[in-house]
Design brief:
Elements lengths: L5 H10 L4 H8 L3 H8 L7 H32 L4 E6 L3 H7 L1 H7 L2 H16 L4 E6 L2 H8 L6 H28 L2 H17 L1
Parallel strand pairs: 1-2
Helix pairs in contact: 2-3, 4-7, 5-6
Length: 197
């Protein structure tokens, strides 16, 4: 009997934010084998069940680490409205800029799952974990002659987050200034023209 039932394996894969095909890639098995396991057509090999459970455990460990980092910020500076966290999209960027995490997770979406789970936890504490997509060019410009470090990456993310918040505020103000009633009237006229043609 396998360490995981097909339903348990399916739940873990779904909870990690992956498709079956992506999970097959992470587990380094043909997709047809994984489909066969989750459908209960063949038994899940113990080594692959163990590998998946270890990945799930690693995600939980890193969620706790992220939460501890936020706790340190709260202790040092007081409770912030939001805290930036860097998201690495695409395996190429993830592997180049987070090689230690890439070795562990082997897929950028699994690190994004860490962020998503931490965001849910922090929302209960009224703290927004604001993901900032890592942009190597922008970061290199920001870095200049300084050494790459997690502290510098977070400083860069903080500046990007601030710019994003300003942009969103400006857009929101522009939307508020638009005459809403006229927009609705134009939509109604368009709808009438479409109906009559």
């Amino acid at each position: 009997m396998s360490k995981l039932t097909p339903d348990q394996m399916d739940d873990i894969i779904f909870g990690m934010g992956m498709t079956h095909r992506e999970a097959a890639g992470v587990l380094r098995v043909p997709a047809r084998d994984l489909f066969s396991w989750v459908q209960g057509k063949s038994e899940i090999p113990d080594e692959k069940a163990t590998e998946l459970l270890k990945l799930e455990e690693s995600i939980e460990d890193y969620v706790e680490d992220l939460m501890a980092t936020v706790d340190d910020i709260v202790e040092a500076k007081g409770k912030p409205e939001s805290v930036p966290v860097i998201r690495y999209l695409g395996n190429k960027v993830f592997k180049e800029w987070k090689p230690d995490f890439f070795k562990l997770f082997r897929y950028h979406k699994l690190y994004s799952t860490v962020i998503t789970r931490a965001r849910i936890e922090l929302k209960r504490e009224d703290i927004i974990l604001a993901p900032v997509t890592f942009d190597p060019d922008s970061y290199q410009d920001f870095l200049g002659d300084k050494e790459d470090s997690e502290a510098n990456r977070l400083a860069w993310a903080e500046t990007v987050k601030s710019e994003t918040v300003k942009t969103q505020t400006v857009k929101a103000e522009a939307v508020e200034e638009e005459p809403v009633a006229e927009d609705i009237a134009e939509e109604d006229t368009d709808a009438e023209e479409t109906a009559s043609s």
